[in-house]
Amino acid sequence: MMERDAQGLLDGWRLGNVLATDCPSRGILSHLTNRWGVLVMVALATGPHRFAELRRKVGGVSERMLSQTLKELEADGFVLRTAHPVVPPHVVYELTPLGVEAAGHVVALVGWIEGALPRIMAGKLAMAAE
Amino acid sequence: MMERDAQGLLDGWRLGNVLATDCPSRGILSHLTNRWGVLVMVALATGPHRFAELRRKVGGVSERMLSQTLKELEADGFVLRTAHPVVPPHVVYELTPLGVEAAGHVVALVGWIEGALPRIMAGKLAMAAE
DNA sequence: GGAAGTACGCACAAAATTGTAAGTATCCCA
DNA sequence: TGGGATACTTACAATTTTGTGCGTACTTCC
Question: DSSP class of residue A17?
């Protein structure tokens, strides 16, 4: 029965083409590439973090956005949330195996940008000059 | 003098930390990872395209968004725009060498998502079931 | 000879994203 | 005993992003 359902979900995106409006990968992509999704993944790539810890690490996130972002990533199966039911709340967020794979690519992209910044800025400078 | 200016621009982001609010890489990242930026890069990764061609290929973009996105990517030095001044306009967009590098990472991420979709969907299915 | 295609720019409107401030229950520290 | 930290949620407001429709100057197709 799960076979049937899974098969049903599989139909239609076998070719997985993000360029198509209705491809489910569009949604996943947007979670991974929106303003805070990328940064949270980058932060979590270095290991488990608590909520407030992440908030401090990712410059500029509001609590609202952070929890929303974490929820989406959790729903996509990239992040695992573990809550210890103690009185001052204690919650830990970490990447799932799937999340580690995804984070690998995100980190690679971000890393490339940081490394390429000199060239990018130089290019902008040249354009502005002419 | 260009040395001096470039040096000035270089100051402050030597460590290139995207997690910092004021890192210039945040801007580049957002151009590359916003709704249409990713898709345009993916489309251009397969070769040069004309405007209307891109519009058809990238499902869902409006002309307004497409030209805006292309302008940003051009300003970042990822896309080269070549206009032939003929009467029915003829403009070609293609990746610069820098853009090819960037597109490589973007395509890798998107490709991974498409490939991982079965696992991602299976995970969602499992979560919904419990 | 009317329709459609080309590569946009512009003004206006709608929609989505993001921020702000406040509230919660409890503990630890001074 | 007052204040801060913890991990959020919710309502409301500001901001940003995105879409829509129109105009252009001219050509080719039917």
Answer: -
Q: Tell me which residue of B111, B51, B25, B105 sits closest to A29, measured CA to CA.
A: B111
Strand D contact nucleotides, protein CB < 7 Å: 5-11, 17-22, 25-27
Which conformational region is residue B112 in: left (phi greater than 0), alpha (psi within -120 to 50 degrees), or beta? Answer: alpha
**Greatest CA separation found in chain B?**
65
- Distance of C1' in D3 from CA in A49, Å: 25
pLDDT lower than 50: segments of chain A: 1-15
Distance B8 CA to C15 C1' (A): 40
Whether chain B has a CB inside 8 Å of the CB on A17: the answer is yes
The predicted pLDDT at position B19 comes to: 86
Look at residue A82 and give its three-state secondary structure. Answer: strand
pLDDT in tens, A65-100: 999 999 999 999 999 999 988 878 899 999 999 999
- Domain limits, chain A: 16-129
The angle formed by the CA atoms of residues A116, B77 and B96, to the nearest 5 degrees, is 95
Report, as ranges of residue numbers, the positions in chain B whose pLDDT lies below 70.
1-16
> From CA B15, how far away is CA B125, in angstroms rounded?
41
Of B13, B19, B34, B66, which to mutate for an interface test with A (greatest number of A Cβ within 10 Å)? B19
Looking at the domain A16-129, which fold is it?
Arc Repressor Mutant, subunit A (1.10.10)
